[in-house]
Specification:
- The complex is a heterodimer of chains A (about 160) and B (about 120).
- Chain A is an alpha+beta fold and about 160 residues long.
- Helices cover about 40% and strands about 30% of the residues of chain A.
- Chain A has one domain: Histidine kinase-like ATPase, C-terminal domain (Heat Shock Protein 90, 2-Layer Sandwich), CATH 3.30.565.
- Chain A has five helices and five strands.
- In chain A, strands 1-2-3-5-4 form a five-stranded antiparallel sheet, with helices on both faces.
- Chain B is an alpha/beta fold.
- Chain B has one domain: STAS domain (Transcription Regulator spoIIAA, 2-Layer Sandwich).
- In chain B, about 45% of the residues lie in helices and about 20% in strands.
- Chain B has a five-stranded mixed sheet.
- The mean pLDDT of chain B is about 95.
- The chains are: A alpha+beta (about 160), B alpha/beta (about 120).
- Chains A and B meet through α2, α3 and α5 of A and α1, α2 and α3 of B.
Chain lengths: ~160, ~120
Amino acid sequence: MNATGTAEMVRFDSALLANAGARVESSITLPLHTDEHVVGVRKVVREHALDLKLSLVEQTKLVTAASELARNTIKYGGGGMVLAQMLDSGMRRGLRLVFADDGPGIADIAQALRDGFTSGGGLGLGLGGAKRLVDEFDIDSRSGEGTAVAIVKWKK
Amino acid sequence: MERIPILRIGDLLLVSIQVDMHDRLAMTLQDDLTERIVRDRAKGVLIDISSLDLVDSFIGRMISNTAAMARVLDAQTVLVGMQPAVAITLVELGLTLPGVKTALNVEKGMVMLGQR
């Protein structure tokens, strides 16, 4: 991971994460540059999901969403990192993932979220699909600066 | 180079995916399968994903594409053993694998391919 990416994420953090209001129990970052990193993210997210005691279906949804977003970070953002945070709101626990890159940014976020839209020859299900699989979804993208996508899954 | 083994049973090919595939590995499998269909003159392909706890859009697309390529090469593909949680997630993701035949397990898949 590079220094620019870290700076980007700190800035994006304040925009995306201020409203969650939950205590952060633990926090780790993982690099996202290669295919193997995507597999690594899936493994770490699965471990967190088990720790949260999510049902098998909810685990699978969360890991799948993470896989889609990790791939987007590499494919469209030119690589970056993911921040994984275990949250405790007092009422419930959850996992927050923030995928950040300093790539070209997304010109039209609404368009990018629509099923079937792709700029990379994929199925165009990644972003909108990932959104459906989690409880909270937030995206911040600035042209020429980068993109950050934050998701949260709560243990219900 | 890391590869997923492809077994031949009569005129069928059987692939059992037992590892969490990264994208390159999935593409290699797609290439290997199409090559083996031609080389072994296979009439059917069984893809067993009972060990997979995740099928995302990339792996789903690989499966759809493999089935389409097999069809052009005169072979039928049956996807077998999908875990319920994976099925639920795939549909929610928006991926319904059109054109891919499915069966609950390898045995039922073989019966399906034998009856074509």
